[in-house]
Amino acid sequence: MSNNTTIFRRLRSKIITKIGILVVIEIIIILSSFVILAYFESQGTYLGNSINIAGKNRFLTANVQLAAVEYQSGSSNLGDLSKAIDTLDANIHALKDGGSYLGLELRPLPPQFLNYWNVINQNWDDYKKSIVDKIIKPMQTTAELPSVEQLSTTNELKTKALVLIGSSDALVTKLGEFAKINSQNLMLLQILLGILNIMILVVLSYLIVKMLEPISALTKATAEVRKGNLDVTVAHKGRDELSDLSQSFNSMVDSIKNYRRNQNELTDKLAKTNEELKRKEKLKDEFINIASHELKSPIQPILGLAGLALKGKIKHEEAWEVTLRQARKLEQLANDILDVSRIESGNLSCKMEKVRINEIILDVVAAAKLNPNLSEHVAVNTKLDTPIEIVADKLRITQLLGNIIGNAAKFTTSGNITVESHVHLKENEIEIRIVDTGSGIPDDIFPVLFEKFSTNRSSGNDKSGTGLGLFISKAIVLAHGGKISAANNNQSGTTFSILLPINGNKLL
Q: Using an 8 Å Cβ cutoff, are 72 and 139 in contact?
């Protein structure tokens, strides 16, 4: 009897402890709810202050405009105009920086609205500069009445003032929408916190009844594990012995599952790595074979012609012409290998400057027409958009276009190769397309088209090259912050699309 009483007291003590903990949690949640709601309401107040300050830009802009007109007409002095300008400038910067301003507490403008503020600030700088350049400076140098030109300037300043007011109104609108969403979220948060409090009360009642049920769950879960089923867990709550036992059981099952899963993942990764190594080894061997062939191709004519020229069987001029052409092929191969080394070490350099992209395209096309790989049945055409300057490396862009047009010449036996340019000022980009009517890209090449050593070696093709050109081309495009892609045309041939930023900034 005494032992039963002791066990009952221990059990009762644990239950009371758990209930007490849950009650404390409920109190904490209620207090937290008040704190969270108070915080969000204060954020709404700060946001409302920002809206008021942003809306004040309209009044202060009109005040600056009026002060400028009065100063220009001579009815007020420069001090009044400067004061109006300083007041609007302070209002705009207080809107962004926050702090205590005009008796209001402001938080810094949220990041999602900084673009709108930047537009306001830019319009304000433009408007302020125009006031200084077209009113203050002329008025300080002459005391005559406003001329027709000065009156036209007044109309121009009115227009810029309206632009500034419009950008301020846009920010007010966005802040208002954001405030509305915050208000809705606050209401939703109140509802959720109320539901959470009710759920805690329900859980409190439920746990009292279910306090000792983990024993049955552990028995069933152990039977499932014995059968080999590891997708079982035992719910555990609290900190008593049964909860610790349930947690330990779940940890044990998770450890077994993780061990099996890791083993399977390692096996899969090992298999994929092995396949990738085999593929790269095959590509390396193929590259060595191709590079050896590419090296022998120019060397043999050089040696042969040198011997014939030495014996006087051919003219030296003819030998020098062919030797020079073959030497350039050797130089190109050496440069490609050096470029690959630079790319892999992250040292591919670009000398960025303003260049005329249409002129580069025309120069590359002119060179392509002299390409010995170009069939006499293939015409190389251009469809160029409005001439424009972009920030790029002229030599690298020439190399890029030469690689792709050269590839098109290799695999096009008849028809056309067309180089197009399309300027997209709104997107700050220029698109260059190289469209051919050749044999197209095989499906097995597409996934690795821009990888190193990837080349079309199907059907005994002897024009496949080293497989470095497109790898280098993609690296050049990426170094310029652009994008490159390729697709087969519906009828025949391939289209390469190159997107380059106009001002040198990376495209999104």
A: yes
Instruction: List, in order, residues 6 or more apart from 408 with CB less than 8 Å away.
Output: 417, 434, 436, 438, 494, 496
- Name which residue leads in pLDDT, 155 or 459: 155
How far is 175 from 102, CA to CA, in rounded Å?
19
Q: Which residues pair with 423 in a beta bridge?
A: 430
Going 369 to 375 to 379 to 384, the CA torsion angle's sign is negative
Beta-sheet pairing, 353-356 with 494-501: unpaired
Query: What is the rounded CA–CA span in Å between residue 506 and residue 350?
Result: 14
Residue listed under structure tokens 């005494």: 2
Q: Please, what sign has the CA dihedral across residues 40, 41, 45, 48?
A: positive
Q: What share of the chain is helix, strand, coil (3-state, %, to 5)?
A: 70, 10, 20
* Residue 508 vs residue 464, higher pLDDT: 508
358/398 Cα distance (integer angstroms): 11
Cα distances (Å, whole numbers) of residue 185 to 43, 112, 313, 426: 12, 18, 92, 35
The pTM of the full predicted model, rounded to 2 decimals, is 0.44
453: left (phi over 0), alpha (psi -120 to 50) or beta: left
> Which pair of tokens denotes residue 2?
């005494």
Tell me how far apart the alpha carbons of residues 181 and 459 are, in angstroms, rounded to a whole number.
63
